[in-house]
Amino acid sequence: MKKFLSLLLAGAAALAISAPGYAGKDLDAIKTSGVFKIGTEGTYPPFTYHDTNNTLTGFDVDIAREIARRLNVKPEFMEVKWDGLIAGLDAKRFDAVINQVGVTPERAAKFSFSIPYTTSQVVLITRDNNNTIKTFADMKGKRSAQSLTSNYGQLATSYGASLVSTDGFNQAIDLVATGRADATLNDRLSFLDFKKQRPNAPVKIVAEQADASKSAVLLRKGDPELAEAINKALQELKEDGTYARISKKYFGVDISQ
């Protein structure tokens, strides 16, 4: 009996010692490999997209590169359609998703989030000659161009709209501009950047939600050390002016204000 109790105590002690190492396993693996694998869309300007030289760029991409630099590792971007980003993180294809992932209770129940790094309003976008949709309530019975598993898709459905599946922001806008969809819900910052690039596009904002949405780095649960390291990097970005510089590059203003 005494021997059995000794074995139990030894096992408990071993578990207690190994627990912290297990908790930090993702951060340890990133540090060991020297690579931070990041899931992103690549089709969502100005956050993550390809420039005229087909180089992956964008606000989120620059933020991700700065996080990796402050972790003393190299960023490796893995481009996946929106509907596959969360599944890819779950399957451990990458270490994090940095792609304007909205913070929701449903996601927080299964995944971890960093501190938010952007805050913006949801806007309702229609063709410029559409006079039937003026409020979010007017979406009932209309066709909304959305990524099916996005926050925006869920919100459009809650207003009674049917969804027209898209691969990203640009396709959603094109569907609205050509009349194949009646509207789309999306991020105000994305729309302002789009209109800066294509001022003559026949689309307009007709309504804006009062409540702001927050986006953060999405992580698997079970590694608070990785979340803490990313949070530290994000705080440093804001404190040393890097965040303001990246903001002005893409939006013309510091969007942290």
CATH class of the largest domain: Alpha Beta
Assign an overall shape: globular
Number of strands: 11
Count structural domains. 2
What series of H and E elements makes up the topology? HHEEEHEHEHEEEHEHEHEHH
What is the CATH topology descriptor of the largest domain? D-Maltodextrin-Binding Protein, domain 2
Strand content: 25-35%
Oligomer: single chain
Rg, alpha carbons: 21 Å
Quickly count the helices: 10
Compute the average pLDDT. Answer: 89
Level-2 CATH architecture of the largest domain: 3-Layer(aba) Sandwich
Fraction of residues in H or I helices = 40-55%
Instruction: Give start-end ranges of low-pLDDT stretches.
Output: 1-22
Descriptive overview:
It is a single chain. With 257 residues, this protein is α/β, with parallel strands linked by helices. The protein has two domains: 25-119 and 214-251, Periplasmic binding protein-like II (D-Maltodextrin-Binding Protein, domain 2, 3-Layer(aba) Sandwich), CATH 3.40.190.10; 120-212, Periplasmic binding protein-like II (D-Maltodextrin-Binding Protein, domain 2, 3-Layer(aba) Sandwich). Helices cover 43% and strands 26% of the residues. It is built from ten helices and eleven strands. It has helices spanning 2-23, 25-33, 59-70, 82-90, 105-110, 151-158, 169-177, 188-197, 224-239, 242-251, and strands at 35-40, 49-50, 56-57, 74-79, 96-102, 111-113, 118-127, 143-146, 162-165, 183-187, 203-220. The strands form three sheets. Strands 1, 4, 5, 6, 7, 10 and 11 form a seven-stranded mixed sheet that branches. Strands 2-3 form a two-stranded antiparallel ribbon. Strand 8 (143-146), helix 6 and strand 9 (162-165) form a beta-alpha-beta unit. Helix 3 crosses helix 9.
